[in-house]
Known about the structure:
Number of domains: 2
Structural class: alpha+beta
Radius of gyration: 23 Å
Order of helices and strands: HHHHHHHHHEEEEHHEEEEH
Oligomer: single chain
Number of strands: 8
Shape: globular
Number of helices: 12
Helix content: 40-55%
Largest sheet: 4 strands, antiparallel
Strand order of the largest sheet: 1-2-3-4
Amino acid sequence: MDSLTQMxxxxxxxxxxxxxxxxxxxxxxxxxxxTIPDLDVLSNIWMEPVQSLAFHRGYxxxxxxxxxxxxxxxxxxxxxxxLPHHKWFGIVGWSLLAALVAGSIAFLGQKTILKASIALGIxxxxxxxxxxxxxxxxxxxxxxxxxxxxxxxxxxxxxxxVLDCFTTYGTQILLPFxxxxxxxxxxxxxxPAYTLPFLTCLIFAMFYPxxxxxxxxxxxxxxxxxxxxxxxxxxxxTRINTIFENSLARQNVAYTRYMTTPTILNNVxxxxxxxxxxxxxxxxxSFFDAEKEFRLKTIPKDRDPIGDAAExxxxxxxxxxxxxxxxxxxxxxxxxxxYLDLRFGTFRTRRDQPDQFVFRFNLEKRPDGSFYLxxxxxxxxxxxxxxxxxxxxxxIKGSI
Length: 400
């Protein structure tokens, strides 16, 4: 899921674990812990693109690693609050949280005045909180024990990869025992219907004193609402699978396997991809479509551009593993290729362009015949949202 959602879930877990004893500190530390696994994106700084692609949602998302990290962080934070002048760690914590939230907002799509204003507003509000809390004469030290801190970090850290498992990207939660990318494909990596009610309940909770039962009630409401919505998406997926299977049968497609996944920001419009011996059949369906059927298109399963490199080349083997074998390679010229990961379906970013597959990677062939991943092509977040969102909204409503 997106970073904001993971922060909200982490904050709610922190509140559930220690909110009654330490108040909003529990939310802050939970939110920070909830985003720690995604700091693996910093690997882009020193790793090759293909290595970074494989590393993301890897060991930092392992249930075992997150459990061990919970013990380390719980012990360190517990010790930190027993050091002289420990209030400065609180200031750093709030500042880090504000930077993470503001950065997540600024990271989405093109830069706009509205997003910059929201990000600056978050930073300003954090400054007000820091001034109000940490310049007081009386400053109370959290009374939680070391095992209570460990429990907070365990809940906030482990729920991160668990939530990611429900998306399409895939999460290596079983490392080091298995490198399988667990992906249930029932919710988009960013879904406001999951995040916003959850966030609203959390905001209400944070304005009550830590001893007030209404604080725990609001936090519990957020957890229940988000969990019920997750169950709804799973039920939605069972309905979509039936519709996709019926569509394939009516169009006489003898598939070997298939997958379905919701499109970005919603759980109404879904993509489907089916594999045969010679081609992939793909299409989209909205629950508001007039006809209860996927309108399928075909893309040849052509491996000629790369030959036996698909089986032998190290870069191509990682790309195949990443895309779970749902891919097509297009050759642009003698040395430049485009790798299409078909799992995420298609997305239209401009009216004058056709739908294009969401995940596209640019490959280059070296003189020795090996392949090199240059970068990832244009993604939905790189689009002009003022044009892309109306197109997506119209398709969700059933307009073809």
